[in-house]
Please model this.
Amino acid sequence: MSHPLVAPDEVVSDDEARARFFREYHDPRHAIMDWRLGYSVVKRLMCPLTNRTVLDYGCGNGRFSRLLRDRGAHVIGVDISSQAIDEARRKHAERINYYLINSGDLSQVPLRAIDVAVSTFVLCCVKERADLDRILKAIYERIKAGGTYVLSEPHPDAPGRDFYSMRRVPKDVLKEGTPLDVQFQDGSGLVLHDFWHSRETYLDALRSAGFIIEHVIEPTMNTYPDEPYWKDERHYPPFIIFRARK
Ligand SMILES: C[S@@+](CC[C@H](N)C(=O)[O-])C[C@H]1O[C@@H](n2cnc3c(N)ncnc32)[C@H](O)[C@@H]1O
Model:
């Protein structure tokens, strides 16, 4: 990579760093890892999608919302970042309704209107357990009885692991809400920030909101022995994915 996305001493907001990440960071193997161990698993757990009403909570620039729309879903995407929502609205937003929201405020989405809700790498941006609870309760209330929620998050055991494209480095002793630097290994100096939550916290927060946990999936690259470049992701899952039912 020829120039740094975010120089180490450059002060940028987390929103701006994330927007730059989605705009400028294109490492094909990172994309393969994201897709294989994250989004493709999430998508499979959300099926069927055709004609289902889907809520993408924390949709960012809409990259996953668009994929869900292209698989036949009616998508509502919400996010607290105006930059992300503006960008999502500019990119092929046909048949997707995007809303800028305050954290946990889904008042623009009718109660019990959603067949399938999803959040990909969103709750790791939320520090406090009380905020996690408020968000999950709001999502639960929007899902129809028997509907599904799929949540994917960085794996709680990932900090310190040396993955091919990134490392998650705790800034303190690991406990609930500890900030982490997410460092990318391409020499770009790109660092994103999020917060650590344990597996028990995710499970307990989902159950406290009313969800029944159906699956917990922790995919690794151990089924791709012919791709020697993978590092710790061969044996340790970078992501953890939960499927829950209302
Ligand atoms: C790592 S990005 C992931 C975006 C998208 N889900 C994806 O997979 O491409 C995290 C997103 O969550 C949003 N976010 C962070 N905290 C949130 C909150 N409390 N409520 C809703 N969205 C939030 C951020 O603005 C950002 O767009």
In short: DSSP finds six helices and ten strands in the chain. The first strand starts at residue 53 and ends at 57. Residues 18, 58-60, 63-64, 79-81, 84, 103, 120-122, 125-126, 135 surround S-adenosylmethionine (CB under 6 Å). The beta strands are 53-57, 74-79, 96-100, 114-120, 143-154, 166-170, 179-184, 191-195, 212-217, 239-245.
